[in-house]
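From: lab user (bench 3)
To: helpdesk
Subject: output format question, protein + (diaminomethyl-methyl-amino)-acetic acid

Hello, I'm new to running complex predictions and I'm not sure whether the block I got back is the full result or only part of it. Here's what I submitted:
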Amino acid sequence: MNYPNLPKDCTSMLCKHLSPEVFEALKDKKTANGFTLEQAINSGVLNLDSGIGVYAGDAESYELFDGLFDPIIEDYHGFGKNDKHQSNLNPDDLKAPNPDPEGKFIVSTRIRVGRNVANLPLGPAISKEQRDFVESSVVEGLNTLEGELKGSYHPLLGMSKEVQDDLIKDHFLFKEGDRFLDAVGLNRNWPEGRGIYHNTDKTFLVWVNEEDQLRIISMQQGGDIKEVFTRLVSAIKSIETKVPFSYNDHLGYITSCPTNLGTAMRASVHIAVPKLAEDMDAFKAITDKHHLQIRGIHGEHSQSEGGVYDISNLRRLGITEVEAVQDMYDGVVALITAEKAL
Ligand code: ADP
Ligand code: IOM
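Helpdesk reply: Thanks, we reran it on our side. This is the complete output you should expect:
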């Protein structure tokens, strides 16, 4: 493989950090699962509008291709090679009374973590048999959950188009045919091995075999962020007694995209700030100050509708879960204050 054609105006982390020297040093390496640099960068090479554009095929990718991953991890999370990740899943440490009790701004709150099964390749390098094994063992574990977490699994295979489209439209299910995931092999054998588990109220959900093998999700209408976090923590704790997760002291939970390492947590609200959004510089000044990311309301790479945005914590590694949610909470309070003042 030759050094890829990366135009000067490309702003992804791949374009920023893949110098010809880094490329030369890594181009012939292969992990024990057969994952190469060419595979790791293909999504960003084919999708120049990527935010990052680089994926890992397994935990070893982060060590073998460290010349590319380390600067991206440092740039995105502000986390250095010798730093250690820390966890805090205690809801009592979160200072987050509902910032919008009258429901004027916050439409809904969602917090998710990514998880992958220990001692298996990540989605980009997994075989069909391994992926099917992940599905059956995760579903076996999920089927033992009780109380509020009790629910049922709905495989994508055999799901009607209508049900699938409704779940996507209502923000419960991942999209189909994502070109960023496609380019790194995450859509191979689609739809086999993929599905969604959820409780009756759809306040607790688990995506199986999307970008990560598990996305554990707690969500509900309104702005009770602490309630959403508390439910998520109880789900994580129950599931990890049944499924061993890939984790190390340096990078925390191992995920296929380097943005998700560490806590693998994205805590978001859908929030209506139509006046503030008329001045994107002022809006961005607040989100930057609180380390937040702005997304559209149909997920990553989508657009806002009606002045409603998805606002979430940007950093996930080197800070605890409580700090990640606190970043989001503090920023949301600042956004509401700014919107009210306009
Ligand atoms: P992820 O959060 O897993 O990184 P996306 O950004 O693609 O992935 O979002 C996945 C889905 O979750 C999308 O349908 C998105 O609209 C929905 N979503 C995210 N945050 C919220 C929220 N606060 N309320 C309702 N739906 C949300
Ligand atoms: N996590 C991943 N979907 N994303 C950061 C893609 C990208 O834009 O590079």
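A quick orientation on your result: The chain has eleven helices and ten strands. Let us know if anything else is unclear.
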